[in-house]
Write a structure and sequence with these properties.
The chain is an alpha+beta fold. The protein has six helices and four strands. The chain has a single domain, classed as Haem-degrading domain (Beta-Lactamase).
Length: 167
């Protein structure tokens, strides 16, 4: 019995002693937008909505959903900053634009339960921002006449920074 325990114990100790094969296994590298890029995105999105006659709020969040920039046009409703932030947060949290989520989570769908997640807002106007195949942030718009118009303004903002995001 002693002869079986010693090799098993040695094998266990060697496994524990080795630890991770390299730092690559223990660390994760992430990218996120700089504040300057987030501001450029928000400004371009606001400009797109203004050109269409919409008074909106624009929120840009980092890849974790934390607000980097909030811009509210002078006549945008009082509710629009919170709504824009929630749309941007939802887009990065669910890794999907909120226009698509509004359709896939309707009341009769199997996914409708996600509408009850705190802070999630399944209304069009939240779009994840991607670079190099990864989500680096999100933008949310609130105040245009509907979700498709909010979504279009968000995408115009993303188009304005697309060259900045290529690496």
């Amino acid at each position: 019995m002693k002869n079986i325990r010693i090799p098993a114990l040695c094998s266990l100790l060697m496994t524990l002693w080795q630890g991770p094969a390299s730092a690559q296994d223990a660390l994760v590298e992430v990218k996120t937008m700089t504040p300057e890029t987030a501001l450029k995105l928000a400004s371009a999105s606001l400009k797109s909505c203004r050109e269409q006659g919409f008074q909106v709020a624009v929120a840009v969040v980092d890849r974790m959903g934390v607000t980097q920039v909030m811009l509210r046009d002078r006549f945008a409703g009082a509710h629009t900053p919170d709504t824009a932030e929630r749309k941007a947060w939802t887009a990065v949290s669910f890794r999907e634009d909120t226009l698509a989520l509004s359709e896939s989570t309707h009341a009769d769908s199997p996914q409708s339960g996600v509408r009850h997640v705190t802070n999630a807002l399944m209304l069009g106007g939240g779009v994840p921002v991607e670079a190099g195949g990864s989500i680096v942030g999100g933008v949310g718009i609130s105040g245009a006449p509907g979700g498709p118009q909010d979504d279009a303004c968000a995408r115009a903002g993303i188009d304005a920074i697309s060259d900045d995001l290529e690496f």
